[in-house]
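Amino acid chain
________________
===
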Amino acid sequence: MSHRPKDTRPSAHKQQRRARGFALIAVFLLIVLLGAAGALATLVNAQQGRAPLAGDGGPGTVLDRIAPREPEEPEDPRAADLALDPGKKTEWKFDGTGKKTVYLTFDDGPSDNTPRVLEVLDRYGIKATFFVTGHEPDKAPYIKDAYDKGHSIGLHSMTHNYDQIYVSEEAFFSDLEAVGNMVKEQIGYVPYLTRFPGGASNTISANYCAGIMTSLVEDVQARGYQFYDWNVSSADASGTNVAVDTLVQSSCVEGYTNVMLLFHDSSTKDTTPDALPQIIEYYQERGYAFEPVTREAFVCHHDVNN
């Protein structure tokens, strides 16, 4: 009796089930591979500093298409207001602010007197403006100290030598650039504020270049700077360590809505920090606010005499 070999092939039903299983596995693997490709594209985009683009990881996608970068927030929000920017439009307040305000300004520092001035300002909780020089390079960190406390920093002169800076416009702007770079090393940018040595009304510049101030008052503004003179002087520039009573009497005046008050914090002005408390209290008692110079401040200009 012959035996036919047993048919071991799966039935058609089983073959269909197995085919569906393979298809499901293939679909699953495809999904995994596509997900991995998308994750890789996202990682590449993150490394390139861009957001993922629609379709990243899909067939025919170009991964090196870079979306525009978002603008970075400035680390120092005051820089937007105080930095030199020739293209920035400002409505300068040459006629005053209409608000009783004192702007305490200090020229010719920094020196060892600068921390003494800062201590008085801290004690009264008020802000001021320092027009700095390069007289004492080892004292330059005091510029950052003043700025970090909320005071404005302006440019006065690197050398403050009239016979150097006023011989030509080229010499003046070379000096101004030098002091600007010194300040930038301390606060991270070049400020737009400046004050001419001797003020815009000085006549000594005529000894070195006739008519230079007439040109400079226009050209500094054309380059994005603004210069600030003063309408009240403390008289501390009249000598070395002028008496406190003299400084107080000269500084405390009536009749001004905006007081742009000139002091010096150089090494020969030891009495200036001593006089400050009486001067500050005088104006406080009369309802004045104290503010640093900014683009919103009163702009005081002298008449030009050369």
Summary: Confidence is low (pLDDT under 50) at residues 1-8, 49-68. The chain has two domains: 14-72, 79-290.
